[in-house]
Amino acid sequence: MSPAVPTHDTHVDDSARASHDALDDGDAFDDGDADDVASSAASDALPPAGRKALVTLLTHRFVSRARQQEAWAGLLAYESEIRARLDEMFLVLVVDHDHEVAFKRQGGGDDVPVLLRREKPLSRDASLLMVFARREHAFTDGRDEAVVISKDAVAEFLGRYHDDSDSDEVRARRRVDAAIAALVARDLLTAEPDDAELFVVSPAIVPLMTADRLAHLERVYLDMAGVEGDADATDEDEVDPLGPADADADTDADPVVEPDPTAVPLDLDLDLEPPHDADTDTDPEAPQA
Question: pLDDT above 70 covers what percent of the chain?
Fold first, then answer.
């Protein structure tokens, strides 16, 4: 008997081959999709200049050409993309091209997460100082020299609303210092390095306090000065220059916590009520218990 000749089964089940081929095709398709997604994500990414501008905008109250030229240039170059990124976080980008300043505001309704914390309202004197600083900025734009105000000019302006300015110079000076400190803390005033009596007004004050808001504030304070004339009450009363504060905001917060450096505390509706009389003489900018 002749030995059996070994045979090799070269037949492969057609269905198995088709399944294997389909799997290979599917893997290739999935890999292609992943590449497409990665390519799309890369194309949507902000260039370094845009990312730097976005980070600066998120970590500062304002971005201005005068103080942050690189960030300002990146913001202008990628304004629409940065606006879209902020919109994803329920933030609104505000850009004043005339005064070359930009900032963010809380957007969305009551049902969206709040990223920017609302700060304590300004004292009456600090909001009056905003009126004064805004007046000084009324006829300027980004191409003009920086607007500078002096402590003496501030004292003269605030003195019109206090009957004791001539008789109690110490108290008057303290009011002036507190009002200036409040606006310095909000980056609306910057001390001149060579002269402690001079302060540069931020161009951000213009878009923050529009002409209509300025006129409304002036009417409110003129009415208060003419009708009430209570010098002792004005030192402690607190007013938000652009509207009432949210009474429920940060009720559990530590009263001595530092303000959020990215907050824009003046983004409120203009609905002012005359401030109430205060019974104690306290620092208008000190944390309240």
Answer: 60
Q: Which two tokens stand for residue 268?
A: 């409120």
Tell which wins on pLDDT, 257 or 226. 226
What residues have CB less than 8 Å from 45, skipping those under 6 apart? none
Give me the residue label for tokens 């999935």. 30
Q: Which residues are 238's β-sheet partners?
A: 123
CB-based burial label for 251 (10 Å; 0-12, 13-18, 19+) = exposed
The first and second tokens of residue 288, run together, are 């309240």
Whether residue 191 is predicted with pLDDT greater than 90 in this model: the reply is yes
How far is residue 70 CA from its own chain's centroid? 19
Q: What is the CATH number of the domain that holds 169?
A: 1.10.10
pTM (two decimals): 0.61
**Alpha-carbon distance 64 to 82, whole Å?**
15
Do residue 140 and residue 96 come from a single domain? no
Residue range of the domain that includes 84: 48-106
Q: Rounded CA gap, 259 and 257, in Å?
A: 6
